[in-house]
Amino acid sequence: MFRIDNILFTLGGQGVSLLELLAVVAGLSCVFLATRGKVLNFWVGYLYNILLFFMFLQKHLYSSMLVQPISFVINFFGHYRWTHPAQDEKDRKEQLKITVLTNKERIGLLALVAIFSLGWGTLLGQLNVWWPDTFPMARTPYLDAFVTAFILLAQYLSAQKKIDCWGAWLVVNVTNITLYIKAGLVFMPMVSFGYLILAFFGFAMWRKQMKENC
């Protein structure tokens, strides 16, 4: 019986499932639409969250799996923020305009990331101790937690249409390449490299739009 997590083909000695392939397509589409400032990116993002939840469950990346429901909520929040800005937050298209964080805000958010990564990484390392029959040993709990923290940060900044989000996505994708390779994924490291390029493209596009709306 065919299942979505069945292996379609192998690449570099690693199997590639339909689930992973669909997640790749959805992820790249979502980021590309975001670089263009298209609200449609949120609809694709909902599907992406669902696909990632099941893919990370299969790969025992519990932090990345458990963050997907939270990401879904942040995605919904961003969808609303982009389409329902306050009067003084509107750009020329009547959507949320692009802004930038202050240095004080950056320091505060990075401190939260560090605290979250340490606490969440410790918790992930205990899942196998508490529920050994349910959770196999986590592969890289602290790296997984660090990526999770930066994903949440990047999504929150994206939802608020802060241009700083592209710097956060840059950190996420560089780290994800290591994480995905350790997890035995094939396409996702390649996709993360694609995300790096899109992040630079997105920053340039948002910077241009921000200047046009000044």
Summarize the structure.
With about 210 residues, the chain is mainly α.
Number of strands: 2
What is the overall silhouette? globular
**Overall pLDDT:** 83
Order of helices and strands: EEHHHHHHH
**Radius of gyration (Å):** 18 Å
> What structural class should be given to the helix and strand makeup?
mainly alpha
Number of helices, counting only DSSP H or I runs of 4 residues or more: 7
Please, how many domains?
1
What fraction strand? under 5%
Low-confidence spans: pLDDT under 50, at least 5 residues? none
Helix proportion range: over 70%
Q: Which sheet architecture does the biggest sheet show?
A: 2 strands, antiparallel
Strand order of the largest sheet: 1-2
Q: Ends: how far apart?
A: 57 Å
Oligomeric state: single chain
Describe the model:
By secondary structure, the protein is mainly alpha-helical. It contains 7 helices and 2 strands, in the order ββααααααα. The chain has one domain (7-85, 100-212). The chain is globular and about 55 Å long. The model has no long low-confidence stretch (mean pLDDT 83).
